[in-house]
Design a protein that fits this description.
Layout lengths: L2 H16 L5 H14 L12 H8 L3 H13 L3 E4 L3 E4 L4 E4 L6 H7 L4 E12 L2 H6 L7 E11 L2 E10 L17 H8 L4 E9 L3 H7 L7 E10 L2 E11 L3 E4 L3
Parallel strand pairs: 3-10
Antiparallel strand pairs: 1-2, 4-5, 5-6, 6-9, 7-8, 8-9
Helix pairs in contact: 2-4, 3-4
C-alpha cells in the first residue's frame, strides 16, 4: 500500500472513530461506500478481492467477508462466484401487478439487455402442466429456456411453456432479437395474467446458468397468461434474490 493510500485510509478511519462507529466491519463498509459514492469505484467496477482488502486494510478475512456480504445484501455490491465483486446500481425491480417485457424494463433503467436461447422445442405435456394449462395428456406444448442478461450479468432464467394453438409460429421466432412476451402479445393479446411469487433454491444447472451458488436463494415467479379466456402460456421466471426485487401498489 502506497503513502497516498495509507494517508487516505488513516483519515477515513479517523473520521469513523470520531463518529463512534466501533465495529471494524462497519468501518470497512463505510470505507467502501465512500469509494462508491465518490464515483472512485463507479458502477460495474470490480473492487479488490477479499485477500486484497485483508492486505490493504490490515484486518481479518472474516471482517472483510462480513462487510462484503452486508453490502451485497444492501444493494451496493454484486458478487459473482468465480468472477469477482462489482459495484452495482440499485437492484433491478419489476411491478408485481404488470406483465412486463424484460428488455424494455432493462432499457428503462438505462441498461443493456441481451438473451441466450438454450431450448426451443415441442414436447409432450408434462404432468405438472395438465392442470396449470388445462391441457390433455396427449397434447403437446412449445417449450423454451432463455437466460436474460442486464449489462452482461444474468438476471433472469425464463422457462416458458406455450399453447401451440394460440401461438403456432412460436418455434420459428428468433428470441435473441425479440422477447417471448413481445411476440405473444402480438399473436395473442393478453386479457388476464396471474403471478405467484415464491422463494426457491436453484438446481445446479440453474445456478450455473445464473452464475450463482446452489445455496443462494432466488425469487421464483410462476406466471400464467390468458387471451380471451384461453391459457396462452405458463412461465417459471427465476431471479437471483440479490439482483432483483418486486414492488406493487395496492
Amino acid at each position: 500500500m502506497n503513502t497516498v493510500q495509507d494517508n487516505e485510509l488513516d483519515k477515513t478511519l479517523e473520521r469513523f472513530e470520531n463518529n463512534k462507529i466501533s465495529p471494524i466491519y462497519e468501518k470497512l463498509k463505510m470505507y467502501i461506500i465512500e469509494k462508491i459514492c465518490s464515483r472512485e469505484w463507479p458502477v460495474n467496477h470490480r473492487i479488490p478481492s477479499e485477500s486484497e482488502l485483508v492486505k490493504l486494510l490490515q484486518c481479518s478475512r472474516m471482517t472483510v467477508n462480513r462487510a462484503l456480504r452486508e453490502l451485497t445484501a444492501e444493494g451496493y455490491l454484486l458478487r459473482i462466484q468465480g468472477v469477482g465483486t462489482f459495484v452495482t446500481e440499485n437492484k433491478a425491480h419489476s411491478s408485481l401487478l404488470e406483465i412486463k417485457n424484460i428488455a424494455e424494463e432493462i432499457a428503462e433503467r438505462g441498461n443493456y439487455h441481451h438473451s441466450k436461447v438454450l431450448v426451443l422445442e415441442e414436447i409432450k405435456v408434462l404432468d405438472r402442466l395438465l392442470i396449470k394449462m388445462k391441457l390433455h395428456r396427449n397434447d403437446t406444448v412449445y417449450s423454451s429456456l432463455i437466460v436474460h442478461y442486464e449489462n452482461n450479468i444474468p438476471i433472469q432464467l425464463e422457462r416458458k411453456y406455450v399453447n401451440p394453438a394460440m401461438a403456432p409460429t412460436y418455434l420459428s421466432q428468433d428470441f435473441e432479437r425479440d422477447t417471448t412476451n413481445s411476440y405473444l402479445v402480438k399473436v395473442a393479446p393478453l386479457s388476464k395474467g396471474q403471478h405467484i411469487v415464491k422463494a426457491a433454491m436453484p438446481s445446479k444447472e440453474q445456478a450455473d446458468l445464473l452464475i450463482i451458488s446452489e445455496h443462494e436463494p432466488c425469487l421464483l415467479i410462476e406466471r400464467t397468461t390468458w387471451s380471451n379466456e384461453v391459457i396462452v402460456s405458463y412461465s417459471e421466471l427465476l431471479y437471483p434474490a440479490d439482483r432483483y426485487y418486486l414492488e406493487g401498489t395496492f
